[in-house]
Design goal:
The structure is a homohexamer of 140-residue chains.
Chain A (H helix, E strand, L loop, with lengths): L11 H24 L4 H15 L7 H15 L3 H13 L4 H15 L1 H27 L1
Helix pairs in contact in A: 1-2, 1-4, 3-4, 3-5, 4-6, 5-6
Organism (chains A, B, C, D, E, F): Pseudodonghicola flavimaris
Protein name (chains A, B, C, D, E, F): Carboxymuconolactone decarboxylase family protein
Chain lengths: 140, 140, 140, 140, 140, 140
């Protein structure tokens, strides 16, 4: 679960692409694809700064970074699509559904009950989609 | 670092007081004292719901809860006094200064550079005050 | 229109359930139902703190509490589903459609014209649904 | 406590000045004075739209309008100076200290505990300043 | 591209209607129409204060005013319908698609990447709808 | 007033330092200095992404970028220190005091009168400090 490459120097863009892929998976790629026709340079910045710079820093575990991101997005209440991407990302980097639910419930204290409720409903959708996908993989 | 009492039943208020004391320490008590002359019932609610209910739940470690709170308050940008209390609380429950700094820098991605800067400056004040207090204890 | 029970002691949960039912009616129950599969404990907290504790306090009339809630949610602009629930609740506890419209228009002053517009459009939907339901009851 | 002039037609500006004076008193005048050197036209707009148009409308009592304003400003958390002016205004148009305290505590539910705390501390300052002024009037 | 009428005195309402029509075009009229059944007086205020007063002031070009509005609405993140109206308005008063895209990307710095992303996706929808309409006019 | 270097390739960091110096001047340097003891890496990011990447892009004039930033920060209401830095920056890159005042007044429409007022008072402080400094230079 480390993002730092050890042997060869890697550009911010390459490192960011690798980090985004590891953390956000398909949901992250969908955002990049959606940007292609509108602002392709912004896709580059999104790889480089958040993922190539910040998420690739060694001082905080990816799991802890996703706790911070889920909390922040739920508290702000203005970024439901991104909150869903990061609930998915949290599961990808080792948070359990229970832990994510706890983070969202806790936001009632700091950002009010509506922020917590809207975060929990977003999590409900992500968990359900993931359960359906997992079932599909098992049954197919 | 567990908050759940095991032998005797404990009221929400008692459990909340114990959790607030463990997590926020003196900074939490200052908030309670400041409420005494304005809205003493609100001090009770503050013990009971955030600390007696939420922080006392077993599904997420206190250290992880403080990551979430620091991130949320820095991202919202409307609660500088509470952010300082929880930077202090983060140190109390096991976050390092480096980890707190990483959380705050990461908020640049989700809430913008000013939110991160204002959070980092708040942390700078808390760290300096704590270093001064620690030095006082050593030298005195 | 009082929520305080006079004869028997009542738990926060019971009192909250009664208050939520009186204030939010079916819309409140829908929220509780939606939480069942995601975070049932949060439904308990929602009964207990907002409704069992805060709305059940005697110092402010329910009608006045709904003025405050409608104003706050419209000004924040991050809680459209909850704003609709509380426009409905406002009607339930004695606010007229005209008064609710005035509250929302006033938010243009404090949170800007978009906040007021989005609040007014939410009210338009609630008023229309309610008119349709009332007509249904009359005609059926 | 009515703002509508009955006998002579009155301009928006005149009506707004009268309403601002009635509602906000000296605190409102301080804002107007502070604008004089920066943006005097904005003082005119402040008289005209919020006070000459909105607060002067008959569909909602001034007391109810101040409930809405206090709730909105406390929930937003970005307007502490204006919140203090309107806590003062609430007292001017008939809200009790207890009612204002209830409104602010209720904001914990919708905007989080920090918003409620910061609102309560603002109220504590306004109440103390007013108590000091009243004592001065009595003793002097 | 000037809004100030030179020969005859014009009421705020007339001036606002003319400005709204020039700036927002059909999208602005849709908002006014939607208000008709809910709060017709608010449509009047919307003509008068934002458009009759503010946008009609000579001290800042309409193009510059739309830069400010697009930036503010994207940064706030609570007014997607109004953001789309003003992306359209920006095109109407002389901003290029590239300039609007730059403004929205820049919001990543001040309000975070999600605010920029949601703004860019809104712009993508407006640009696509406009391209479709232009093609329709050419081919029809 | 162009930031793009024409002859030699320049790193993002160098370009960002040059842009920050041109745009924010001494106020920007103060922010960098304040970060030195808390999070020096964040100073690097601040040079690189906002200034080395975004402000250095050719698609929008610096003057227009500052309109967007002043509007966004005033509308958000959570970044008064940064708003002051960018009011100063706006003057540095060619906005007049009148234009900045117009931008801030316009925010009343989108973010409410308190946001506009707090922005105007921030501008008042910046204008006064600058007038004092200019007078000092003339008289000294």
């Amino acid at each position: 679960m480390t993002i730092h490459s050890s042997t060869t120097p890697e550009s911010r863009l390459e490192r960011g692409k690798r980090a985004l892929d590891e953390i956000d998976g398909k949901a992250g790629q969908n955002v990049i694809d959606a940007l292609a026709g509108i602002a392709p340079d912004f896709a580059t910045y999104l790889f480089e700064f958040p993922f190539g710079d910040i998420y690739s820093r060694p001082g905080l575990a990816l799991r802890d970074r996703e706790i911070a991101t889920i909390a922040a997005l739920a508290a702000m209440g203005t970024a439901q699509p991104q909150l869903k991407v990061h609930i998915e990302a949290g599961l990808n980097v080792g948070l359990s559904r229970e832990e994510i639910t706890e983070i969202l419930m806790q936001m009632a204290v700091y950002a009010g009950f509506p922020a917590a409720l809207n975060g929990l409903f977003a999590a409900g959708e992500v968990f359900a989609a993931r359960a359906a996908a997992e079932e599909g993989m098992t049954c197919g």
